[in-house]
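Collaborator request, handled under Task 6.
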Amino acid sequence: MNIVCLDMEGVLVPEIWIAFSQASGIPELKRTTRDEPDYNKLMNWRLGILKEHGLGLREIQATIATIDPLPGAKEFLDELRTLTQVVILSDTFEQFAKPLMEKLNWPTIFCNTLEVAPDGTITGYKMRCAQSKLTTVKALQSMGFDTIAAGDSFNDLGMIQASKAGFLFKSTDQIKADHPELPAYEEFDELLSAIRGVL
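Structure tokens returned to the collaborator:
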């Protein structure tokens, strides 16, 4: 039995931190897992910048409310879910993902959670598990699933490489150059066709 594992940001929806960087006028917040392989280092750096500027969950959620899925993402996901089981594996947080999942017709998502003070200050974060995407793919495989994975960033490479079939989607030139063995696509119809081919 197959299950498709998809990254969320950069694949189905725009990068939340890039959108918030633009909305807040803080260019440093544009940095994502496409730029920084160490997620804990990246998140702690982000939380430091938020604290420095007195920004919290409320301000980020206001930006998220303005974000729509990438053009064609909902249709891609709707079609894919008629073919096979799909789960979104993301290093984002429940508090960020919920309004975006609503716009995508409530697919299953496994992600992390923020620790938030009563005043909305983000004080920390709790990862669901270590190396969450790779760990989840291995757990699904241990339950008898063949996984097919697609993502765009450094933190997606583990799940892509560990799967029966794996694809880069809307990735960076650097990641594509570093991993020429991975098929890379830019359009949803290309990715859907590639997944169909291995189902």
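The cover message to the collaborator said: "The two ends are 9 Å apart (CA to CA). The chain has a mean pLDDT of 96. Please let us know whether this matches your experimental observations."
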